[in-house]
């Protein structure tokens, strides 16, 4: 049994409860065993005591959509129309990604995410056993899927085979920190009968599904032309929504789409910065949350963002929709914070309580520097975290009770090695 | 004479020229005396040598609009309609701002801006002699104006008097680091005859003008009702544009407005995050730059942002307009970078060359950590700076040849004292 006592200057337990004064959190193995205001009243015997009187503890941020090893493609193609970017830059480089590349690219992503306060991320990519090995080593929590594309018989079959073996090997492994889901890429890369097969497999393996849906206007137009249905209605008609589904993007959704998602409890990963940079558009998030959908926030891959900083997504989610609606009261700080933490955790199928600092919840905690100029003064701690904090304020990160970042120093990743390997691989990719 | 030799791993001289390999910069007194690739060929005798082999040098960022001491109101009111926010939160607190508060609030802003790589900022507020004292002490470059409001005779007269004495006392002072401009707040707080007086004063004192124009739809509608002209056309008709003018926001401008601004060489401060958060809207920046207007970027005050991080504005400017236009090639990385540096410097009336690292330019330099995970790998250094870098990557800042931040440590500001005073004052404000 391992016990850590965190003594901090303030605590944001959740979007609903902020303690603006000293408090403590006891991490016992991988859960929060106790949390309270003031001094810890119990005995410190046998505990690792971490004193951080000038830090605020918040639940670790949850990144609900991405492609981790795309860090290796960061900046390889920007300011290009989506299809040019994909066909001329991304696909040729991705064709050269080896298992080695996936491992190091994922570790680079983990380093970047830990340093910016994220404790759990979601991934859909290739050679995922190597990504899982990187996650295990980094100490992060992750929801992983082997991307499935059904455009030809060979890739369709290998998608099913890889996913099935990946579920068998890694679901609930790494001390329970890894969840495996199925990852059909999108309706435009997975024909209807393939989506039906995926749905059937999800039922048989009892795992959730993640998929890209309604990211661009072109995707929706094409889907309407081919199937006379929106991507959301089409996914429903293929039986996908009979299983737990996390739908990424949902930029171009109708009120009927939102009603279909609500009726089927489809979760949404909102990726505001990627949607802006790729010129996809702005998702109608206020309509989705008003309908009761669970919406989390995500960075998407580093090739389309170009970083994995969840504070940027948090801030953008809390500001962007105000301007669209010409209403400054839309999506207030507490709601945005909940999307980045508790609702993100729900969106990616973590157990109840995850994404909060409640007793009994997973011991995933991020500490921010209260002495950072961004966070001075403190008229509202929650407002400061949502509208002012940045990656530079993150000093400590705990996942499942273990310190992954301590006083800004990575504890689990050999960052010099990761930098060396990532530069080596990136050079090979661009040749 | 003081000479500093910076040895760095890479240099972004300007949006047009990136050196992706070792180089050097010689800062002599307050200008860049030499810059080159590889090793400095001259003698190092008498020079302060700063070795930063794992840093990239970029021109210091220029923040073209803000209200520095509003750091003291950070988070005091969010998620509220503009008029509620102003009348119920901002104005009552501002009424309590003493000269002491302006001094400490401005120093807090300087600390935050230095730490996030900004070397020059723009300010329009009150008790500006105290703000100027803070700027002088911090070592930053600044373009300051004493806010002028003409809603009654007393404040109108004191606005003129304060501005005139402020110009006399501080214009081109602090070793030339301070520029003073006139600061008529906006057409809705300055009646036409007052704007005419301000224009006349600008001519007499030979200083530029900064003003808020066309920030909200309501402002435009009211102006049309009152004067049968848009705020831009109205400002022109009051003679304001016969002098150099920096117009903040310009969110709701017509093609005719843009043509008036072009014909009069009116500069624009684009504040994307403030415009989103206050639900003002999204400025038609691509139309303005295509028309040839000089557009810089700004944070606005910390009460409406809520931080002073120019990397966020840079990233938002480079991504937001893509989604609005559904065109990923709009406002590419180089253009956004130019807006945050060289065009920002032009916008706030700094001498030619400012905002670049060209020989002879002002010695305002920011260094970023090339070993930050955000900046690995390096397919494109400029893309990494625009789309991935953050305040956490800033390690060193020089203004006018002097180190204000060295290996992340502030060199000119007693940050513990600033934190103490800012918290003390903020507490009094909220009582």
From TrEMBL, chains A, B:
Keyword Thylakoid attributed: no
Family, as annotated: Belongs to the metallo-dependent hydrolases superfamily. MTA/SAH deaminase family.
Catalysed reactions, as listed in the record: S-adenosyl-L-homocysteine + H2O + H(+) = S-inosyl-L-homocysteine + NH4(+); S-methyl-5'-thioadenosine + H2O + H(+) = S-methyl-5'-thioinosine + NH4(+)
InterPro entries for the chain: Amidohydro-rel, Deaminase_MtaD/DadD, Metal-dep_hydrolase_composite, Metal_Hydrolase, MTA/SAH_deaminase
Protein name, entry field: 5-methylthioadenosine/S-adenosylhomocysteine deaminase
Function summary: Catalyzes the deamination of 5-methylthioadenosine and S-adenosyl-L-homocysteine into 5-methylthioinosine and S-inosyl-L-homocysteine, respectively. Is also able to deaminate adenosine.
Binding-site residues for Zn(2+), renumbered to this chain: 65, 67, 212, 300
Keyword Ribonucleoprotein: no
């Amino acid at each position: 049994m391992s016990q850590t006592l965190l003594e901090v200057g303030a605590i944001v337990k959740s979007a609903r409860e902020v303690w603006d004064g000293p408090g403590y959190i006891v991490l016992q193995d991988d859960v929060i065993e106790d949390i309270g205001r003031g001094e810890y009243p119990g005995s410190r015997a046998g505990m690792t005591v971490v004193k951080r009187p000038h830090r605020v503890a918040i639940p670790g941020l949850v990144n609900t959509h991405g492609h981790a090893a795309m860090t290796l493609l960061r900046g390889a193609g920007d300011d290009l129309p989506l299809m040019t970017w994909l066909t001329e830059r991304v696909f040729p480089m991705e064709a050269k990604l080896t298992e080695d590349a996936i491992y190091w690219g994922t570790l680079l992503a983990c380093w970047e995410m830990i340093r910016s306060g994220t404790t759990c991320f979601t991934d859909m990519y290739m050679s995922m056993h190597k990504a899982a090995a990187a996650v295990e080593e980094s100490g992060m929590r992750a929801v992983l899927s082997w991307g499935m594309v059904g455009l030809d018989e060979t890739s369709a079959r290998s998608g099913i085979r890889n996913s099935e073996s990946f579920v068998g090997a890694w679901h609930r492994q790494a001390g329970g920190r890894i969840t495996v889901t199925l990852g059909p890429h999108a309706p435009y890369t997975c024909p209807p009968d393939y989506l039906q097969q995926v749905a059937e497999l999800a039922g048989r393996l009892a795992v959730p599904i993640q998929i890209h849906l309604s990211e661009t206007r072109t995707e929706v137009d094409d889907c309407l032309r081919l199937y006379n249905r929106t991507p959301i209605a089409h996914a429903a008609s293929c039986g996908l929504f009979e299983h737990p589904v996390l739908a990424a993007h949902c930029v171009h959704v109708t009120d009927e789409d939102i009603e279909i998602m609500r009726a089927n409890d489809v979760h949404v990963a909102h990726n505001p910065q990627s949607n802006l940079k790729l010129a996809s558009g702005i998702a109608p998030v206020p309509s989705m949350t008003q309908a009761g959908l669970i919406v989390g926030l995500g960075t998407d891959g580093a090739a389309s963002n170009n970083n994995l900083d969840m504070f940027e997504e948090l801030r953008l989610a809390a500001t962007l929709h105000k301007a669209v609606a010409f209403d400054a009261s839309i999506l207030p700080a507490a709601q945005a914070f909940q999307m980045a933490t508790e609702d993100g955790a729900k969106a990616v199928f973590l157990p109840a309580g995850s994404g909060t600092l409640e007793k009994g919840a997973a011991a995933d905690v991020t500490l921010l520097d209260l002495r950072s100029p961004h966070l001075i003064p403190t008229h509202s701690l929650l407002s400061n975290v949502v509208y002012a904090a940045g990656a530079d304020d993150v000093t400590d990160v705990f996942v499942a009770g273990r310190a992954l970042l301590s006083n800004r120093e990575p504890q689990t990743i050999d960052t010099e090695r990761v930098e060396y390997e990532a530069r080596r691989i990136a050079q090979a990719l661009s040749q």
